Amino acid sequence: MKLEFLPEKALLLGDSLVVADLHIGFEEAMVREGNYVPKLLDRVVSSISKVLKRERPRRLVINGDLKHSFVPAWRERRELEAFFDGLSSYLGEIVLVRGNHDVGVGWIRKLGVEIVDSLELGRWKLVHGHRLEEGERFIIGHEHPAVRLRDEVGASVKVPVFLRGERLIVLPAFSPWAYGNDVTREIVSPFLRKFDVSKLRVLVPIEGEVLDFGELGRLTRVMRGL
Fold first, then answer.
1. Which domains does the chain have, with CATH numbers?
2. Is the pLDDT at 104 greater than 70, yes or no?
3. Higher confidence at residue 71 or residue 35?
4. Under DSSP, is residue 6 helix (H, G, I), strand (E, B) or coil?
5. Is 56 in contact with 133 (CB distance < 8 Å)?
């Protein structure tokens, strides 16, 4: 089965396009807390639509945390309706692998979206990653993996990354607001304790390509030595 890591923070697995952690409604949640951030829903829809048009997958899989708030809200529902309306030209299947943020989303089945707790594609089992699961090879989200890159004058920027191993792939968050967890400093998800994360390769999607930064263990030692 074809496996390709795309610079748009998406994974092409056979005839399926896989993304994770869209966190639609994040901006609305910030407003309720008294903070203003600009809405980027159009950017999310445009990014996914561009990849769908180019790759023409039979299936779009959202690997958890389609939405952001743990409490269903009518404004968030409007955001989700706008999201799927923006993808209306896509004629393939859409599957949501339920994540810990995906509370009260059963109504999207009326829009033709299938909702599952896990999905097996070839030799891979897709789960969101917020709880332990039985299986051999997994593709997860949830961790929002990222690393800090530094230039020669010491300036740094945090960038999302893929983590890739023979039995585990961790997807970066697709949301432009999810800056990510620096995996050279800590691992958040208990799911990852099942694996030797030091052997996972760090793949950085940046400027239209995906760069291999080597094994996480080695990169961690290098970063801590700076």
1. 3-224 (3.60.21)
2. yes
3. 71
4. strand
5. no
